[in-house]
Amino acid sequence: VQVVESGGDLVQPGDSLTLSCVASGITLDYYKIGWFRQAPGKEREGVSCMPIDAATYYADSVKGRFTMSRDNAKNTMYLHMSTLKPEDTAVYYCATDYPQRPSTVVAGSCLFHTWGQGTQVTVSS
Questions:
Q1: Contact 40/30 with Cβ under 8 angstroms?
Q2: What gap in Å lies between CA 77 and CA 22, rounded to an integer?
Q3: Largest interatomic CA distance in the chain
Q4: How crowded is residue 39: how many other Cβ atoms within 10 Å of its Cβ?
Q5: What is the C-alpha separation between 71 and 28, in angstroms, rounded?
């Protein structure tokens, strides 16, 4: 089972950016999916959680600016980020609740146990 993030970049404040995550070995629409991030020297922060049959959760810090989507045909999820701020600078990880790792990251009702290597997003002028 593997999830691979891509799309991270250096952008300016106010810019938009979309991250992608392709999964292999699992079918994403059978699992809760989402994103979390980790900034230098800070704890992991759950950014979003898309349950199978409930509304998507967003952290207060990104609500109204970030949205996530999925393309089941491509077994891919996305994180659409707009009005980016310097405090959004972090490594972003896509994740699922597939039980791969003993550790967990929480985002809303999601308990993530599978995630990738991450993709760096830097917001700076």
A1: no
A2: 7
A3: 40
A4: 14
A5: 9
Q: Helix, strand, or coil here: 86?
A: helix
Coil, helix or strand for 62?
A: coil
**Contact between residue 75 and residue 27 where contact means Cβ atoms under 8 Å apart:** yes
- For 3-53, the pLDDT digits (tens) are 999 999 999 999 999 999 999 999 998 999 999 999 999 999 999 999 988
Give the distance, in angstroms, between the CA of residue 114 and the centroid of all CA atoms in the same chain.
Answer: 12
Contact 94, 87 (CB under 8 A): no
Q: What's at 85, amino acid-wise? A: K
Task: Give the C-alpha separation, 21 to 44, whole Å.
Answer: 18
Give CA–CA dist 22/40, Å, rounded.
25
